[in-house]
Amino acid sequence: MRRRATLTARQQHELQSFIKDAEKVGEIRRAQAVWLYHDQASMGTIMAVTRYSERHIHTLAAGYKDKGLSVLKDRRQAAPKELLTKKQRIQVVELVIKKTPEDFGYETPYWTTGILGKVIEEKYKVKYKSKTSYYLLFRRAKFSFHLPPTRYREQDAKEVALWRKAARKRIARAWDDPKTVLLAGDEMVLTTATTTQKVWLPQGAGEVPVVEVSNSGRKRRNIYGFLNLKTGTEHAWKTNFQNMHVTVKILKKLRRKYPEQHILLLWDSAGWHKGSKVQEYVKEDGNIEILHFPRYAPEENPQEHVWKNGRSAVTHNRFIEDIDEATDEFVKYIRNTTFAYRLFDFTAIS
């Protein structure tokens, strides 16, 4: 029988320390299985001592040689320490269900982990170190987490509702017409200002990476984007400006993409979308139909999600030194990505 590889002196010391310090029975058994395996004990002996199957013993031994102690540790996380008594936890759950933060002097009717933590600290003199304990209390109250969408204060809800009713019918006809291209358009400005977002790091990874920023003058580039709602294909062009003359040039490029089809274009009522030169070109083309989104309602436009996706994938947490290089990379990414975003009941074929 082929002899098994023996442990190095460092690995022997590491396993001995792990077995000595581990508090969980499962972790100790896994470490013992690896130790006996590499100490040339018979498979029958290892199985009798650990009660593991031969296959599992081989897996543990190989895993330790490859990944170290991580394969021996219990993956199940221990329940967070309960600082509140059982009676107090019941009271907090009832409090969450029956009251709102307004009852405690806060100017919002919606609970957050921060507000709940403050209320518990004031009422019971208890403060949890982790938000997980507050999550568990919300779950016991049968609350779920939601990120509230934003909305412009100037938005007219009736106007949006009327638009949705009329637009749904027009888009349904366009969706079923193979000769009609359905596009959602918008523009964004990319600058050298550094934007950040949260990142996930391994526990115990040490310092959080620092993102460099610049305090020098900002440079900017504009991007015109059009999402084909039927296919999820994105068309995008970098420009130096946003005005009606540039918009006409972009519409001509868009027409070259779809030389014969009827184009139903959804976009907002920005001045450079409704300028005289744009109106002249649309009339001259004769096969472009414009459907404007309601005022102050960017959430209706699927193209907004394309910008968000591109920023997350390309420009967040990045020091932008060359604005043109970064913009070109951004445009390349969204052009080569399929975006199956829903508009009403319609979703692109991905």
Describe this structure in words.
With about 350 residues, the protein is α/β, with parallel strands linked by helices. It folds into 3 domains: about 10-70, no CATH class; about 85-140, no CATH class; about 155-195 and about 215-345, Nucleotidyltransferase, domain 5. Helices cover about 45% and strands about 10% of the residues. The protein contains 13 helices and 7 strands. It has helices at about 10-20, 25-40, 45-50, 55-65, 85-100, 115-125, 130-140, 155-175, 245-255, 270-275, 275-285, 305-315, 325-335; strands spanning about 180-190, 220-230, 235-240, 260-265, 290, 340-345, 345. The strands form 2 sheets. It has a 5-stranded mixed β-sheet, sandwiched between helices. A two-stranded antiparallel ribbon has the order 6-7. Strand 2 (about 220-230) and strand 3 (about 235-240) form a beta hairpin. It is extended. The mean pLDDT is about 85.
Shape field: extended
CATH topology of the largest domain, anyone?
A: Nucleotidyltransferase, domain 5
Structure annotation, total helices: 13
| Oligomer description | single chain
Number of domains: 3
- CATH architecture verdict of the largest domain: 2-Layer Sandwich
Give the structural class: alpha/beta
Give me the count of strands. 7
Helix-strand pattern, N to C? Answer: HHHHHHHHEEEHEHHEHHEE
- What profile does the largest beta sheet have? 5 strands, mixed
How would you state the average pLDDT, rounded? 86
Query: Under the CATH scheme, which class of the largest domain?
Result: Alpha Beta
